[in-house]
């Protein structure tokens, strides 16, 4: 009689994962603003799309608001990493608010591209998701000249001249593969379509998707740590499934893991979106160990060294505070 050896369990954690340079800068901006000006510091929208980060900053005295009319006149308000439209900047100036703009420089780059195309009289096709703050901010740069394209299927419904003066731009946190499919369809219909001067999907989104693609084929289960409203985290679940993970779920933290997901599972992959502090990933790895899985092995695709300086308006006040 032959006996079948039990399958070996393993946990692979993807790298890069978690915080990107833009998220790190935005979170540190609110922390330093709280230290410098004292609470409360108002923040328009969630500074980054992560529940844990928002709750931690709230405990320190940040007040998150949806719109500027909730901010008292004369107060300090931070704009989130996702960016704001020129109309929001104008409203803040009208209200006499002190603003600190924590928009990620890679989102600002897309705003500049939109302004430049619009100034040249080019119609912009913005690939992105309706209602996402980043999309609202970018569209606000040239509302009359921007059309939102949410998926490859949207391309068929566009009522534009075949040889029109058109360019595409995109949200920074989309699936690279799906975006390229949409661009391919756009180009079939509009052969003169212009590209953005450089990639709009940012380095962090691309690296996290490539890293998860690398480990997905051998995984029975991929756990993605990230909040429901985090676009790049939700994309990681889709990318994992497309790349061969047998199942994939997004969780805010270890407490959201359903033990049923682990039944019959030998190989687990773990990653996290760009707004997720690593302590939450560690919580997931600890939970897996408590369920009989071995310590995780990291598979690193590449190193990330990019860092962004804090917003200039905050740096100026920090320098002044040091001098006094
Ligand atoms: S995901 Fe990309 S665009 Fe968004 S904050 Fe991070 S680096 Fe910036």
From TrEMBL:
Cofactors: [4Fe-4S] cluster
Pathways per UniProt: Isoprenoid biosynthesis; dimethylallyl diphosphate biosynthesis; dimethylallyl diphosphate from (2E)-4-hydroxy-3-methylbutenyl diphosphate: step 1/1; Isoprenoid biosynthesis; isopentenyl diphosphate biosynthesis via DXP pathway; isopentenyl diphosphate from 1-deoxy-D-xylulose 5-phosphate: step 6/6
Positions of [4Fe-4S] cluster binding: 20, 104, 202
Cofactor note: Binds 1 [4Fe-4S] cluster per subunit.
GO biological process, any: isopentenyl diphosphate biosynthetic process, methylerythritol 4-phosphate pathway
Name of one Pfam family that matches: LYTB
Positions of (2E)-4-hydroxy-3-methylbut-2-enyl diphosphate binding: 49, 82, 132, 172, 230-232, 275
Keywords assigned by UniProt, alphabetized: 4Fe-4S, Iron, Iron-sulfur, Isoprene biosynthesis, Metal-binding, Oxidoreductase
InterPro entries: LytB/IspH (IPR003451)
UniProt-listed Enzyme Commission number(s): 1.17.7.4
Annotated active site: 134
Binding annotation for dimethylallyl diphosphate: 49, 82, 132, 230-232, 275
Matching CDD domains: lytB_ispH (cd13944)
Residues at which isopentenyl diphosphate binds: 49, 82, 132, 230-232, 275
Gene Ontology molecular functions: 4 iron, 4 sulfur cluster binding; 4-hydroxy-3-methylbut-2-enyl diphosphate reductase activity; metal ion binding
Function description: Catalyzes the conversion of 1-hydroxy-2-methyl-2-(E)-butenyl 4-diphosphate (HMBPP) into a mixture of isopentenyl diphosphate (IPP) and dimethylallyl diphosphate (DMAPP). Acts in the terminal step of the DOXP/MEP pathway for isoprenoid precursor biosynthesis.
Entry-linked HAMAP family: IspH
Family: Belongs to the IspH family.
Official protein name in the record: 4-hydroxy-3-methylbut-2-enyl diphosphate reductase
Species in which this protein is naturally found: Tessaracoccus lapidicaptus
């Amino acid at each position: 009689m032959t006996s079948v050896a039990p399958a070996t369990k393993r946990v692979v954690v993807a790298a890069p994962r978690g915080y990107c340079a833009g998220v790190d800068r935005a979170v540190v901006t609110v922390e330093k603003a709280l230290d410098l000006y004292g609470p409360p510091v108002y923040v328009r929208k969630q500074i980054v799309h992560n529940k844990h980060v928002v709750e931690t900053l709230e405990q320190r005295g940040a007040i998150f608001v949806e719109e500027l009319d909730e901010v008292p006149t004369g107060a300090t308000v931070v704009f989130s990493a996702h960016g704001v439209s020129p109309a929001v900047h104008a409203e803040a100036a009208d209200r006499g608010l002190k603003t600190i703009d924590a928009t990620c420089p890679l989102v600002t780059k897309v705003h500049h591209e939109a302004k430049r195309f619009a100034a040249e009289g080019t119609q912009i096709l913005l690939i992105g998701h309706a209602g996402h703050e980043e999309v609202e901010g970018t569209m606000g740069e040239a509302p009359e000249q921007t059309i939102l394209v949410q998926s490859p299927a949207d391309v068929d419904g566009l009522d534009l001249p075949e040889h029109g003066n058109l360019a595409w731009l995109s949200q920074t946190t989309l699936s690279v593969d799906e975006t390229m499919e949409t661009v391919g369809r756009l180009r079939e219909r509009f052969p003169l379509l212009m590209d953005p001067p450089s990639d709009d999907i940012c380095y962090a989104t691309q690296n996290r998707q490539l890293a998860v693609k690398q480990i997905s084929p051998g995984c029975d289960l991929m756990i993605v740590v990230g909040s429901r409203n985090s676009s790049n985290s939700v994309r990681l679940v889709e990318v994992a499934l497309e790349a061969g993970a047998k199942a994939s779920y997004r969780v805010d933290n270890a407490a959201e893991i359903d033990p049923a997901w682990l039944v019959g599972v030998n190989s687990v992959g773990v990653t996290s979106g760009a707004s997720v502090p690593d302590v939450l990933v560690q919580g997931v790895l600890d939970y897996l160990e408590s369920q009989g899985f071995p310590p995780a092995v990291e598979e690193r695709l590449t190193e990330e060294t990019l860092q962004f300086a804090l917003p200039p308006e905050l740096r100026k006040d920090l320098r002044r505070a040091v001098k006094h």
